[in-house]
């Protein structure tokens, strides 16, 4: 197993080097699975506990604050659903939460935690929006390896704050379906609730509605009326959502629509997975000026991946022969501590 140890935990940011503590594993990839919105709504618990996530911005706004489901709350849901009767298996969702490792290749890919580079993407995306009002409106957006989904959550919050009938489509993908159910989708519900789009619902049930203030921790009751109001808001704002789990190799055969904005963060840590990731990013992008953004640490200590390995794979003869080669332009960089970059991909 691999230990990254530089994730953003519920109580703040911690940075450290990673280490490898076991031999290389034989990886059996998860198959593609489509998760309908109805299934994700059904999987919501009766109550969601959340805390603020403050994201510093280098654009004109000082910061962005999002409500994020507490990790301990997801664990409590699993135990309440019967997952805590016996010691959790390493391959179970509860096992992921309790495991000493942040990564079990081919089993769990770290999606339950929020990683620094996803916040970097929010910073960059906020700058795009500042340069053009309603930048995300009417766009098709795809987040690859979304985990907690913070970049997409930010985009959806901005869409819910904007004019109705945006006509936007947001697709979120993660290796583990349990991550989408336990963390990603609850975070999207919170993004809607903390926006003006939920105002009518909040006014209809003031006794059970916490303040729509993402800077204050709280608990959100999940009622049938809330689910109905959320679904209605999606229709009113012209927002469609898609969710899928499984390996990138399996997803590429099911991906038909192209996207205007394709983002991924903290996904280049395994060099053997780079060809599949690059092929998926290429297939997902429109042929006319897509924003394809890859946010990553310069080096993933102990694992072998990093920016140099990604660029080498992106520009390789193998990718060129497959029609997936590209050039990476650095559009955002942080050199203090563990170096981080955001690269915009231009396909050749």
TrEMBL record:
EC number(s): the record gives 2.1.1.85
The GO cellular component terms are: cytoplasm; nucleus
| GO MF assignments | protein-L-histidine N-tele-methyltransferase activity
Record keywords, A-Z = Cytoplasm, Methyltransferase, Nucleus, S-adenosyl-L-methionine, Transferase
Cross-referenced Gene3D superfamilies: Vaccinia Virus protein VP39 (3.40.50.150)
RNA-binding as UniProt keyword: no
Its domain of life? Eukaryota
Q: Which InterPro entries match?
A: Methyltransf_16, SAM-dependent_MTases_sf
One GO term under biological process is:
methylation
Entry's localization field: Cytoplasm; Nucleus
Family indicated by similarity: Belongs to the methyltransferase superfamily. METTL18 family.
Q: What is this protein called?
A: protein-histidine N-methyltransferase
Q: Which organism is it from?
A: Mycena rosella (Pink bonnet)
